[in-house]
Structures are given as C-alpha cells and as structure tokens.
C-alpha cells in the first residue's frame, strides 16, 4: 500500500509541475518550489505542524497569507491553527501586542527596535517550537519572509537564533518613470504604474511588487522620475498616487514623490518658485497638507534641482540648502523628509565635472534642516561600470548623506548583459573614506555610525518594468534583490546574497548554484574589462548610452562627450586628476588623496580615472599600458565566452525556458562585448600607434564601420514625459 | 487503501491549486484546468489512453507538445505512445503523409482542403478510437486545438463527427505598433515586439502569442503600424522581423509588414516614390526579393496610403490601383499579396466623409492586379460603437475585398469597459448588402462566395500589448478570441463563442457561465446606449478619443470634430444622409438605400446616422426624440449597474484576483458611463431646450464642468514612432 500511495503521489507531483504555459519568471525569488528531498521534506513538515499566529492587522494578515501559501506550495501542508503550544513543531509568530508567548522574549525585543525580528528555537510547555517575533507588524512580516528564505534555501531549522534588523532606515527604490509610462533608462518595458487606470484599478502587480520589496526589506519607493513633471502634484495625480500607497501600505512600503521645483509656477499659478518667497512657502505647505490628507504616511519628496536643465533654488539666486529647507519645513509637521540629490552641475562647463557636487555641497554642510538628507551617487560621474567612491561620503559630517546606486544597467549593458551588481555595490560600500581614520567606510557613513546621523538611507534606481519577468534579464532580478539585501545591511557579502538568490530563483542543486554563482561574482569585472578597463569611463554611445562611443566628441556640452573624459592623445590616455591636473584628488581625505596623487600607488583599476598615462607606461603585468588595455578588452570578451560555456552546461538543471532565454542573452552579450572591444581597441590604437599584439583575433571591421553604425529606438531614451 | 490513496490525491490536488502568486490571467483561454468532475475525468481518461501521433515537422511537434501538456494538466495523464491501435481509447492524429490510418479517410480529406481538419470516432482493429486528421500539418494543429477545446468545455467525446475548415483564407491581426514600442490606440501596455533585443532574443511571449492565435485559427499578422515608419524595411529591421516570423512559423502564422509608400525616398535614396517610375518599381522589386531571402513565407504588405497625412500614389498623381499594383507586382513572384486599405480621404473637407472611400474605390473596381485585396473597415466612418455596414461591401464585384474590424476598443471604452465585440462583428457580417438580392450578406462578400473571389481575408486591429493579461481587461481577451473564431467562420454565433470562451477562460460552472454570458451578450448594446444611442457617432473626446466630447468643434479639420457629425441645432439632431442631405444612402443597393432614405423605415439604431430629426419627433416608444435619447443614456448607465450586480454574485465562483479586477473595472465603467450620459444629455439639452424628465437622477455637475475637464497622458495617443 505504501508503494501505491507513493506512486500516486509521485504521478501527481509530476503533473503538478507540467505546464502547457512555460516558465515565465514572474515569480522572482518567491517561487516557493516544492521541497522534494524526502528527509528535508519530512523534517520541515515536522517543524511546522502547528501555527500560533493571531493576525488582525493588514500587515499581519499578508504575512500570514504569505506563510500559509508558501508552506502549501513547498510542503503541501497547512499547519493546524492553535492558541497554545500543544505539540512539537509549533510555529509561534507575532508581536508583544498580539502574543504573550512573544512578549516573553524581552532581550531580543529590546535589541531589534522597530523593524527587526528574531527567529529562534524555543521550548514551550515542553514542546519544540520555532518563534518569530518582532516589536512591530512589519517586523513580523520581515521575519516571516526570512523564515521562508530558510526553507527556500534548504537551511536547517535547528539551532535557530537569528536576530536581525536593518542598519539603514530608508531603503528606497527610485523609479525614473514618466507619467506617460515611458521609463528613463528603463530596459524592462514600460512603467509598472498604470496612471490612466488609477485610482480605480489596482493592478495585481502593485501588490506583487510590494511583496517582493518587503521580502528583501525595501520599505519605500519614489514612483515618478526625478526629472519630474509638475502634474504629479495635482489633486488628480495625488489621488492616483494615494491608491498606490494604499496597495503598498500592508507591506510596510512608504510612497515618496519626485517634485519639480518650479511646480508653484506651473500648476500653482504663482509668478515665482523662489524658496524664500512667502507665497511659495505657503504653496508648498498647503500642498504637503493636501498630500497628507490623501496619504497619511506619505514619505516625502525626492528632488533633482539645478541639474541637467531642471529648475531649482539657484534659478532664483538661492542655494541648495535654502531650497531643500523650504520643502523640508512644509513636510516637517507630518513627519516627511526631503531627499535632495547632489547630482548637480551648473551651466558652465567645468574643468572637471567630477568635482562639482563636492564643490557645491561641501560648503553647505550644517545648513540643512534636520529632515533633509542629501542623496549622493556612488561615484562622482554617473553610474559608470566602475567609479571610485564619491568624495562627498564622509565629507559632510553635519549632514545626513544617503547613497544612490543605479540598479538599472544604463551603463552596464541594459537588460541584455548578465552583470551582477552586488560586487559593484559592495566595492563602494567597503571603500574607506578615512574620514575618521582607517575603517571609515562608505557603509559606515551611510548607516549613520560614523557621524551619528539619525537619518539614514540607501536609494536604488529601479530596473523594474512591465516585462513579465520584471527586469528584462532573468539575472537582472538579482540586482534588485542584492540592492535590497545590502540596503538592509551593507555588511552582507555579495557571495551569500548571490547564493540565496540563485537557490530561491532557480534551484538548490549545487551543480547549478556553484558554477553560476562564480559566473555572477566574476561578471562585473568582466564587463569592466570589455567596456572600460583600467579606469576608463564615460566612453559609451551618445545620449542612449548604447554600446561604445569613445569617438563621441560632439554633444550638448563638452562634458557630455567621451573625449572630455578619456583625453587620449599620442602621449597617452586618461584624465589627470592629481594636483598636476584637475586636482579632484584633493576632495578626498589625505590617506586616499595621497594614494591617488601618485600614479604608482593608484590602484590599477582607477589608473586612467586619475592619471593621463603614457602608452608605454610599464604596468605591473610587464605589459605596457597599450598592451594591457588590449589584453583587458580581449580577456573581457574571452570571459563572456567562458560564461557561455558555463551556462551551456546548465541545460537540464533548470527549466528550458530560462535556460534558453539566458543563452540567447549571453550570445547578445558576447556580440556586444566584441563590439566594445573592437571599437575601443581600434579607436585607441589611432593614438597609441602600436599594433594589436600577435595572437589576438582581428576586429571584423575597421573603425569607420563602428563609428558609422546607427541605431534607432533604443530603450530608455525618451525624454521627460 | 483506496480511501488513503484518494485522500492523498485530494490533498495533492488541493495544494497544486494553491499559489502564493495570484492568478495573473496570462494563460488566456488555454488554461487547461484539471477536470475535477469524477465521471467526466474518468471518461476522458479512458478515451485518450493511447496515442498514435508521429510528429516530425515543427508544426506537428508543437501540436503534439500542446496535446501532451494539456492532457497532463487536465487529466494527469500521458497517453502511451503506440504505432498501431491495440486498445480502446486510442487517439490517432496526423495527415495522410504521416499516417496510413489517416489516409483512409478520403471523404473527409477531400472536403477539408488545406487548413481544415476532421475529428471523428472510429473503430480500428475493433478498438474505439478518436481520429484527428488533416491534409496538412497546420490542419492537424487546428484539429488538436479544437479537440482540446472539447475537453476544456467539458463536451462529450462520443459521436464525434466534426469536419471543419476556414471560410476565409487570410485571418490576420493588424498591430498598430510603432518601432519605439508605443502602440497607436493600444490600451494594454506597450508593444509585444522588443525590436531592440531582436533578432537575438526570442521572448517566450512571441511563442505564446502564436499559440493563442493558432488555437483560434488566426494565420497571419502585421507586426507594425499602418502609419508605418520606412525604417522597418531596412535590412536591420527585416532581420528582426525574420526572427519573429521564425518564432511564429510552426504555428502556421505568416508575417506581413505595413509599408510606408515613400520608403524608396526615405531609405532608398530615390528622388520619387512615383509608382510608375521604373527606378521605384525596381526598388520595390529588389526590396521584396530581399525580404523573401530572410522570410521565405513572407505574407506581403499592408498599405495605408493617402490617408491622414500618409504618402501614397496620389502624391504623384497616380491612383490607388496604380500604387497597389506596383507593390503587388514586386511581391507576385514570391506569392505575396498587398492589402490596400480603403480608409482614405483627401485633403479637401468633404460634404460627407462617409462617402469618400466608396467614391474613390468604386471606380477602380476591376483595375487591381490579382494579388491585391482591398481592406475595408466595417463602417464608413471609423470603428464607432455602432455603424451601418460600409457601402463598399458588395460594390466591387471584380475586386477582392476584405474586412477590417477593430478589436482594440478605441471608441469603446479602452481597456476599462467590458464590451463584448462578438455582437458588433456579427451585426456587420450578417448585414444584407442586397448586392445580388436578398441574402447577399457582408459575410458572403468577404468569404468570397458572392462574387467568387479567390482571395479572401479578415483583419482585426489587435488589442494585444505587454500587459501580463495581454489585453488590459480580462474580458477584452474575449474580443481577440471572438475575432479569430469569426474570421475562421463568419457564420458562427457570438453566443456560442462567448460560451466557449467563458468555459475555457474561467469555469464550466453554469451558475457563472450563464449570467456572465448574458452580460457579455448585452454589453455592446449597453455601451451604445451610454455613448452613442440612436445612430449618434463621432462625439468622443478630441484626439485621444477618451470619454465624451459632443462639444468638440475645433480640430485639425471640420470632419475631425463632433459637431460635423451630430449637427445638433434647435430644430433637431443627426446627419442627413438621404437624398435630402449628403445622399450617402445612394451608395447602397436599392433595397437598403430605399429603407434608409425614409426616416420612418430607417432602423431606430441608425436613425441619427442617416437623418436630421426633430427633437419632437415621435418615436415608436411613444417618447419624443429628446426623451428617447435621455432614456437611452440613462438606461445605459442603469444597465452597467446591473452588470455590477450580476458580477458581484460571481464572487467565489472564480479566483479572487480576476473577480476583484473585473469589479474594479466595472466600477470605472459605471463612472465613465455616467460621465458620458451627463455630458451628452446636458450638451444636447442645450439644443432641445427640454427638461430631463422627472424620475431621472440629475447630473452631478453642469455642462461647463464636463467641457473643461483635462486629462493627460491618455493611452494610445503617441504619434507615429
């Protein structure tokens, strides 16, 4: 009889995984695949037989539903609901307010503050239990998601003693989504937000979006582009935004809006948007009051001002602090904050654009009101494949400073290149500013440790769109995931994060996880090699930033060209930012500055970022600079081919659909890596006058061919609205 | 033991339907839900125990995979594969080329021609079999999909004797999709076609799109907008289109392209696009040759010429036949065809735009080459909620004429209104032209019966986009489905089609199917009532066509306004198209013309289409015209409220997600129906000077309020590209 049952069970299991409709990758890392290894399956089932989880609030309800659905899918099990522990294998979940069993755990509760949670094995009434506790409902939600992660990654449920809480307060996505549903630098279809159908129609995706974010600890989102349209502050659009906020609310996600600084003129009928004008101040105060009537937990404003043509306080002869403080004062009574971007540059072409943000903001340190936080990009140029950390980190001790990473791959191959950004994020976070001596990492600046900042945040420019798989490339989901994990705790390792993500998204099969994780871990360096090795930067195609464009010499202004940045000539290549050049190195603390001042001590990966270096310069490898550059470009392409080989071995280990999809995409990546390599090598050869060393395959075409290629309708390039 | 097994099976069945990820409506009508009624489940399983289906070609392979996956999902069963019939319950599938068992059925095979199929119960070796046979691989595919439909709709598999074949050759979708992925009149997100990632990346949706189309007999698609960009004929874009064609090919779907008539100038470097110029003719011939090198089964060109600003032969002093024939000659050697649209009007504002297509095309009858087909919209204006049939149907006996329906709801509430278009399509198809006396229906014109045309077609302007649920509104999927079914056979009943669609898309539960089907069947008339009752037309908002705009008096040209069409004044309302007016009625055959000439015999539904009628005109209801109009607008809104009541009773009969989604959408529909009603009643009251009769709820606002409402970023309104 046991055999028969097992046979039938096996048959049914077989057919439950058979679908005429292929794997569509919509479910992200929350797939909750059935646990098929028998010992583990039985062990898990024994561990969650009973459930004590009183759930009255919307947040607790969604946490409980998530848990029940996931256990159903993974273990074919619904734990029996109970009020007291009467059996081994009881899950106890809640807050001190919902459960006296939780309230007992005073020590943990005192440690974890507002959003943290603990998961531990305990004994109640002599029975083995697992307890998930938190001080708040959202803490419970985070605890449940992390408990489910344990099951999804096939972790042991014995000896659980997890105490976890976020190190950063505001973990926020920035959507550069226009109201017409185009997405600036979006490579995954159009905007998720169906403004036309709002507020009446709540797309199920809004809820799945909130779920996915909550599962990795993201607790805020800016739904409209920093290049903002004033209309988003009209009552009609506030009503629409309120419907989104309502959908997100149970998942602990606060809604923010980007604002256009000149909105009082454009939709308010005022003559000025001068932040010191009393009428303007009143307009913003009234507008904030109105927003909070619709969205009581509204987060606040994100502002791009006096940058790339956006209006701002400087338009009226005021400085950034004056602009930010006016908005902050309007939000203050409601608890809202202002995220004021430091990505600015004025109309004059600077000697070095890398220096501008520091020059403008450093003098304002201490002048911002307490509910303003300055949002600084990871590097001083613009989300390049590799940048040294931004000199503003650590430089404004009296001002909260938050990180802005770009998750969407504007400069990293859009949604056709497999590039795991965990490594990029981590490289910046682990960089040492030396602001208070050794160990003053960027992570410690932005988590508030270094200067005891009460307001902290990390923003990621989202790579999420209407594509069924959310991010365009299956592996681009990993970058959304890694951003969330690192915003929760910047100390986490990209390796661990990749491991978890692969297990949850694909399979726990080590024969898949290990080689593919290695591929992910290497992928960012590979991309740097075939795009911008040795500190090269900003040499991509004009406007759309598609593919290589080291030859770009004409653009709206010189600091939008490539030649401004690489400065290749017959003598060498690179931007001299030491004291012999723009002296941008002076913006760093002495330990860093001294290292970068000297070409010999400058890390090879930043060589051409900081120095104009002779083509014949002897590199540590024994090659000269030209040969090293050629070597990097070729090795980048070779590495992509190795990624293809690795991937081809994964056939059969995962579903055919995603296997084929990634295979297609890697083939495109290989083509485009070659395109980068050939274009850049041929272009720079024009200056180095040295041959491509023997043994390297020759470019398919001449330089003119690459320079004259034309592309149309490149994603992400629509202007504002 | 049986009990234990059944218990385990039940538990597994339960959990296989539990998903943390909600119903997303992606699977359309191909859901293949498990058959849960025990008797039916057993009966079906007994009927398909064995399978004889040799499948060597790509088309047979996809048919077989579809069958196997569907049986797995519906019946938890994989039929044993066999070469000979050795058991009762054998499925025999194939063509005479693949199976001698099929070749025996000479009579059926002789009847069904190229794309037909038969499904019948037979005896082989004394065993009960079901045989699905066809002359071609694609016929087998259609047979398999229709067999699966029998299972999905819980039909009996006894006494099967189906012989089915399409009545129309070219069953084609027209995508008004721009190369930048915006969609003109698209309300379901952006274009499916990811041109930037083509040809390297084949989105799984391309294949699911092809599957869905094949399942309802659609065999062709035009992937780019009729307002075409010449770039789509460059080698780069042909390569991309070829990748789409390759994905579609196994499903029997041919790819067509819209062309821009002036492409020889724009991308060919010629000085003219004059169709009589030898250089131009050669350019098109070379271009056709090139396309066929990449796409050997390319379908041909769709052309919008000399219409709404598009270039065309008249630009060079030539007529439509001369333009079409030049293109046809280029395609002819390869077997391609030209679909030349009759939706034209010149730069001069006509006395009656309704007459233009007939006036321009009727004189050209007989002048088109044999591989040209003229594509005529269902009515003479533009896809209004209701139009009389286009007078060109039946009027060009020497020319193949095909139908153009609009599936996307440009004038029917976008993707927020539930409007089943089966009724609209059928109304036109069943209209009698009297071209060869009584019974000369539009259906018989376009299926070629009436004038023995060898080339036939029906086009539908697609409502498909990147939204996860494909069409924006769950019920909009029914319009794609109904279009396909009616293109296959215009004689089919919209009721049957709705019944099949509901069963396949939602449930076979009669308590759901019957009331919801009635709602679908009524929905189009309801929409006519709250938008454009009694023959009113073209009174929607300017440009975006969003909501009411009877007051629109300023537009690019008078025949783009509303007042041009409704001609409301103190005397009455309506466009006089009898001999006392524009005499558009003269374009119809005498029986129709005479009926429409007289206000008394004109069907009430077309009253104001053909006549300017006094506000006091006595209607058959006993109301005067004004009262009748008010009555219709109010009853339209009341009917939507009844739809809401019907739908609210469906809770629990289907998944919560789609229930909630449709509920949201019906609430929007109710609001917008009120908006239409209030706007139109208040506007026309301005002329009728009569009160809204007692007992009707008063409009919430005055007319000025409605006239002054502003909307931004309305879907579907981006210009070309």
Automatic annotation (TrEMBL), chains A, B:
What positions does the domain Glycosyl hydrolase family 67 catalytic occupy?
151-470
The EC designation for this entry is 3.2.1.131
Q: Which residues form the signal peptide?
A: 1-22
What are the Alpha glucuronidase N-terminal domain coordinates in residue numbering?
28-147
The answer on whether this UniProt entry bears the keyword Metal-binding reads no
Q: Which Gene3D superfamilies match?
A: Alpha-glucuronidase, C-terminal domain, Chitobiase/beta-hexosaminidase domain 2-like, Glycosidases
The record's annotation in InterPro entries points to: A-glucoronidase_C_sf, GH, Glyco_hydro_67_aGlcAse, Glyco_hydro_67_aGlcAse_N, Glyco_hydro_67_C, Glyco_hydro_67_cat, Hex-like_dom2
UniProt GO molecular function: alpha-glucuronidase activity; xylan alpha-1,2-glucuronosidase activity
- Give residue ranges for domain Glycosyl hydrolase family 67 C-terminal: 471-696
Which keywords has UniProt assigned to this entry?
Answer: Carbohydrate metabolism, Glycosidase, Hydrolase, Polysaccharide degradation, Signal, Xylan degradation
Q: Which catalysed reactions does the entry list for this protein?
A: Hydrolysis of (1->2)-alpha-D-(4-O-methyl)glucuronosyl links in the main chain of hardwood xylans
Pfam families registered for this protein in UniProt: Glyco_hydro_67C (PF07477), Glyco_hydro_67M (PF07488), Glyco_hydro_67N (PF03648)
Family as reported in the entry's similarity comment: Belongs to the glycosyl hydrolase 67 family.
Q: Which PANTHER family match?
A: ALPHA-GLUCURONIDASE A
Report quaternary structure and partners: Homodimer.
Record protein name field: Xylan alpha-1,2-glucuronidase
